[in-house]
Structures are given as structure tokens and as C-alpha cells.
Design brief:
With about 280 residues, this protein is mainly alpha-helical. Helix content is about 65%, strand content about 5%.
Length: about 280
């Protein structure tokens, strides 16, 4: 303890110096102006302080075209909420396509593109990633059981991420996040082999509710991007997360429940129809 209210600590500030080699040993300088009795403050210049990629560039591109992306996400979300199980092959194709697009955009914006890339670069990259995603989705739709397994894994991982951001963020340990995502992901993936229809309904409703509400939020505003939310909660800066975020999360839960009920009703209606179809009975 430094005094009755505060413990000793230390702060380091690393300023970007691209001329230095990563292996060079940094030289720290004591900063008298920013230091306190309980927390000395040191600064240095080093290549490790340089930013690698800019995820915010992705969101600037999306938000600059929020109307287009919002409508697309709401349409895809509505489809997953209502017809995700009924037309499972297109559903698998769409989800794998979106996943491929997200991975390609992430890799390019983080490791290859500069943070001031032109808008046409974003549209070109998006077009190419959609084409590649369509190819991946086409082949994935041919393997229904495998596709549904991975949909279960991704849905479970999403549940784990949401639980971490809403409840377990106070533990402030990245291992907890990975454990939650792994446990829920593997569980839903395995259950898809035993309760195929119900897992498909639950997972497509989870995807659909997220896409629908996220699309709505792009047009209405008030939903910080996911990376900003994670950083704020992980640094215990929960007060800076706007109340509208929690309203959107509550909306996702409600929309997801509605999607599950609707698809269960649709399945029950199909089962009832099959009972009176003599050819299917035979």
C-alpha cells in the first residue's frame, strides 16, 4: 500500500518509433510531470509502440454506407429468423459467406491496408470477398451436417462472447472469454448431431436476431462497434458504454425468442401436414 486509499503502481508510455528494430532494448525516461508519489511514470520510444492495422477503418467504411449495410443485414437477419431451418442449405451458404467476408476484411484492414485507404478500395475488397465467400458458402452447403456443426460452434462462441461482455468482464481475464466461447461453441456443435432441427432453429435465430438488430442499429445509431465495446468493458470503463447498447442487446434477445417460436410453429405445421400425406407416410 502507498497510503490508505491507493496501492503502488507504475505506468509506461511507449511512443511509436518505426526506425528502431523490434529487438532493440528500449531506454525509459522518468517523467516528472506525470508521476505521482504512488505511481511513477516512464516514457520511451520503440517500434513496438507503432500501431498494427486499424480495425476502426472497417467501421468507418461500414458507417459511411450505413444505409446499404443496414438494409442488407436486416434482410439477411429476417431470412434467418423465419426460414433458416426450412431452407437450411442457403442458410449455411449465407452464414459461411458472411464469415468469409468478415475474415478477409479483418485480415486486409489489420495487416495490409493503411488506415486512410480510399473508399473504392473498400468496395473492391468487399466485392472480391463476397465472391470468394459465395464459393465457400456453395461448397459448405453441400455438407449439411458439417455446416450445421460449425454454425452451432459459431453461435455458441457468440453466446460466450455476449456473456463475457455482459457479466464476466469484471474478472478481466482473456482466458475466461476463450473458455466461455469454447464451452458454448463445442456444446452447441455436438448437440447439432443429436437435436439437429432444434439446434438449427436456435442457431439461425441467434444469427438472425444479431444481423437484424445490428442492421437496424447502423441506421438508427447508438450501438458502438464490437471492438470498442470489448475494450471499454475489459478496461472496466463500463460507464462509458451507452444505455442504447443494452437496449439493443435486449432487443436481440426478444427478436431471437420470436424467431425460435416462429420456426417451431412452422416446423410443427410441416410435421402436421406430413401426417396427412400418404406418400410421405409410406
Amino acid at each position: 500500500m502507498c497510503n490508505e486509499n491507493k496501492t503502488y503502481g507504475i505506468s509506461y508510455e511507449i511512443v511509436c518509433d518505426p526506425e528502431m528494430d523490434v529487438k532493440d532494448t528500449p531506454s525509459f525516461t522518468f517523467n516528472q510531470d506525470l508521476s505521482t508519489k504512488c505511481r511513477p511514470y516512464y516514457t520511451t520510444r520503440h517500434k513496438s509502440g507503432c500501431q498494427i492495422g486499424d480495425l476502426n477503418a472497417i467501421w468507418r467504411f461500414v458507417e459511411a454506407n450505413s444505409m446499404i449495410f443496414g438494409i442488407v443485414l436486416m434482410v439477411l437477419g429476417s431470412y434467418n429468423l423465419t426460414l433458416g431451418r426450412k431452407f437450411v442449405r442457403p442458410t449455411i451458404g449465407i452464414i459461411f459467406c458472411l464469415t468469409t467476408v468478415a475474415i478477409i476484411l479483418f485480415l486486409f484492414y489489420v495487416f495490409l491496408l493503411s488506415d486512410d485507404a480510399e473508399k473504392w478500395v473498400g468496395w473492391l475488397l468487399l466485392t472480391i470477398s463476397v465472391i470468394l465467400g459465395g464459393i465457400v458458402g456453395f461448397f459448405a452447403s453441400k455438407l449439411i451436417r458439417v455446416g450445421v456443426f460449425f454454425i452451432g460452434v459459431w453461435s455458441g462462441a457468440g453466446i460466450g462472447l455476449l456473456l463475457n461482455n455482459m457479466i464476466f468482464y469484471k474478472i478481466n481475464n482473456v482466458a475466461v472469454l476463450w473458455v466461455l466461447m469454447a464451452v458454448f461453441g463445442i456444446t452447441l456443435g455436438i448437440l447439432s448431431f443429436f437435436w439437429y432441427n432444434y439446434i438449427v432453429i436456435i442457431c439461425t435465430s441467434i444469427f438472425g436476431s444479431y444481423l437484424f438488430v445490428r442492421g437496424l442499429s447502423l441506421m438508427a445509431g447508438g450501438y458502438p462497434n464490437e471492438f470498442t465495446i470489448y475494450e471499454r468493458m475489459n478496461s472496466h470503463d463500463i460507464d462509458s458504454v451507452p444505455g442504447t447498447f443494452y437496449a439493443y442487446v435486449a432487443g436481440m434477445v426478444v427478436v431471437c425468442a420470436l424467431g425460435i417460436f416462429f420456426q417451431l410453429w412452422l416446423k410443427k405445421k410441416e410435421d402436421k401436414k406430413d401426417e396427412f400425406d400418404i406418400y410421405k407416410r409410406v
